[in-house]
Structures are given as structure tokens and as C-alpha cells.
Amino acid sequence: MSVLVNVILAVQILAALGMIGLILVQHGKGADMGAAFGSGSSGSLFGASGSANFLSRTTAVLAAVFFITTLALAYFGNSRPASSGSVLETPAAVIPASGSAADAVPAAPVAPASGAAQIPSK
Asked: Which residues cross the membrane (predicted)?
């Protein structure tokens, strides 16, 4: 299970970095007006509007991958094995001097210190 979570986390990080890079490469809607009136170059590798379609579709795919991996990580983060409980819910065990963990008994609750009984409570 840990390997699967690590793979999903790596895919999520790569999708996030890819989205950041693609969003920074894209130009805004106002940049098209400047190219229409002659300032800036409209010729590019993908054509006049081909880069916008390619980059926006790739960003959408990476956003979907990021969303799916986020849901998968949330699912695996909330799923607990039925056999093991929380560390806070299990009592501590006292190991006897012989060192055998099989002879361990749960620790008795500690009585409050004598000074704690003198503090008034509301």
C-alpha cells in the first residue's frame, strides 16, 4: 500500500509541476489583441491559434490527473486497517525485568500529584 501511495504522490507532484509550467508559458487573452494590430509576432511553432488549443488542452488533462490523484490520496489517507487502532487508543504496556514482551501487562493509571488536587477548578 505504501508503494502505491508513493507512486500516486509522485504522479501528483509531476502533474502539479507540469501545470505550473504550462500556465506560465501561456499568454493571456489581451496578448491576442496586440498581435492583431501588428505588435508582436503571431507566427509560432503551432500556428496562430494552435498553441493556445494545445497548451490549454494539455493543462486541462494535467488538472484532471491532479484532481484524480488528490482524491486517491485522500481515500488512501482515510482508509485504516481494521486490525490496528490508533496509537493513542491502545494502553501502554509495562515490560517486566525478564524482557519478554509476551509477559507485558497494561500500565496502571497514574494518580495526580498532590499539588494538582489543590488547584481550584471552575
From this structure: 54-76
Residue 13 maps to a domain? yes
Measured CA to CA in angstroms, residue 17 lies from 14, 60, 80, 82 at distances of 5, 14, 30, 36
Contacts of 51 (CB under 8 A, 6+ apart): 44, 45
The per-residue pLDDT for range 71-102, each reduced to its tens digit, is: 999 999 887 665 555 666 666 666 666 656 55
Calpha distance 103→93 (Å, rounded): 10
The answer to the question of residue 110 being in a domain is no
pLDDT at 11 over 70: yes
> Residue 25: what residue type?
V
pLDDT digits (tens, 9 = 90+) for 31-66: 656 555 655 555 555 555 556 688 889 999 999 999
Whether the Cβ atoms of residue 51 and residue 44 lie closer than 8 Å to each other = yes
Flag whether 104 is in a domain.
no
Residue 62, classified by CB atoms within 10 Å of its CB into exposed (0-12), middle (13-18) or buried (19+), is: buried
Task: Answer whether 96's CB lies under 8 Å from 103's CB.
Answer: yes
